[in-house]
């Protein structure tokens, strides 16, 4: 039996937990194969896609900073990749076309939005306008949330996203603290709070936070950013980034192997042990 090979490409990716996630499932479902890290420079993107085309690779995940840059090398974008112009999962289809799909949107919906009651009525604020932002915005929209605002240190990036998602309201970064009171659902899609940069955090004044606020931090390392901890201690409903990682991986795994892998306790324990 030919051993299957999967990889994640991006730069830097040494911190990625995707190999832990996918190798756990490959083993659990007795699939002969491995999932590896492929740290590549931009000039090698064409070569990676060639490996998909000639079946040296059965599938790849794409992460920062290549989710848009990989697109010119693909034959076709489908579903949420088309909706967001952001690709995180690639495979060869039955017609030998290299397909770009996006499973981050599903990850955000399954991990968070489906768990929040009456989510469609909430006023949502996305903080950040980098690579993950299009998937968050589209997941909110797909979940029928109509009131979506965005705020980013570099306003031009918010305005660029508004060109694709014209329903967005663009806010001023300097007003962040004053704006917080206006929102029911806030998503941190910045790298503020990330391991190694813990001193840079979002500043939330608890006096200006709605009691009913739901706060999602897309960061999973650390599992609890300072901002998440502060809000959690004030009884705000919070989610960290780990579940999004797991659910986007679940859908990628399904696209490649046609098995919907189970998210069991041992998997979560294993992932958490790698974060500590
Ligand atoms: P990115 O493209 O590099 O964007 C980084 C974002 O952070 C930009 O909006 C940037 O603002 C903002 N930022 C960075 N330093 C800042 C500072 N000192 N002050 C204010 N804003 C700052 O990254 P990305 O791919 O969108 O990822 C963003 C976050 O999402 C990361 O923390 C990552 O861990 C997380 N993520 C999680 C998952 C998951 O599965 N859980 C998946 C993807 C991403 P400027 O535009 O002004 O630079």
Short account of what is shown:
With 276 residues, this protein is of the alpha/beta class. Helices cover 34% and strands 18% of the residues. It has a 6-stranded mixed sheet. The chain has a 6-stranded parallel sheet with strand order 9-8-7-10-11-12, with helices on both faces.
How many strands, which pairing sense, and closed or not: the largest β-sheet?
6 strands, mixed
The overall pLDDT, averaged over residues, is 96
Shape, principal axes of CA atoms: globular
Hetero groups in this structure are: NADP nicotinamide-adenine-dinucleotide phosphate
Quaternary organisation of the protein chains: single chain
Structural class: alpha/beta
Q: H/E element string?
A: EHEHEEHEEHEHEHEHEEHEHH
**Roughly how many Å is the radius of gyration?**
19 Å
Strand order of the largest sheet: 2-1-3-5-6-4
Which parts are unreliable, with pLDDT below 50 for 5 consecutive residues or more?
none
Tell me what portion of residues adopts beta-strand conformation.
15-25%
Count up the helices.
10
């Amino acid at each position: 039996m030919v051993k299957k090979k999967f990889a994640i490409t991006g730069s830097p990716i040494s911190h990625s937990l995707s190999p832990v996630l996918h190798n756990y499932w490959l083993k659990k479902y007795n699939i002969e194969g491995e999932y590896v890290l492929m740290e590549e420079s931009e000039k090698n993107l064409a070569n990676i896609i060639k490996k998909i085309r000639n079946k040296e690779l059965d599938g790849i995940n794409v992460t920062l900073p290549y989710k848009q840059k990989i697109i010119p090398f693909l034959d076709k974008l489908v579903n949420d990749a088309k909706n967001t112009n952001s690709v995180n999962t690639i495979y060869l289809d039955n017609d030998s076309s290299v397909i770009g799909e996006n499973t981050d949107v599903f990850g955000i919906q399954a991990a968070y939005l489906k768990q929040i009651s009456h989510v469609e009525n909430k006023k949502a604020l996305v903080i950040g306008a980098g690579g993950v932002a299009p998937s968050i915005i589209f997941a909110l929209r797909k979940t029928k949330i109509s009131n979506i605002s965005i705020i980013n240190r570099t306003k031009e990036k918010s305005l660029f996203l508004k060109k694709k998602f014209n329903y967005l309201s663009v806010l001023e970064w300097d007003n962040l603290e004053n704006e917080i009171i206006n929102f029911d659902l806030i998503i941190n899609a910045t790298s503020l709070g990330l391991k190694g940069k813990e001193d840079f955090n979002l500043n939330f004044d608890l006096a200006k936070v709605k009691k009913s606020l739901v706060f999602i931090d897309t960061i999973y390392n650390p599992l609890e950013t300072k901002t998440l901890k502060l809000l959690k201690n004030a009884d705000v409903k919070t989610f960290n980034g780990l579940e999004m990682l797991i659910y986007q991986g679940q859908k990628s795994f399904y696209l490649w192997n046609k098995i919907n892998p189970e998210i069991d306790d041992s998997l979560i324990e294993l992932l958490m042990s790698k974060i500590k």
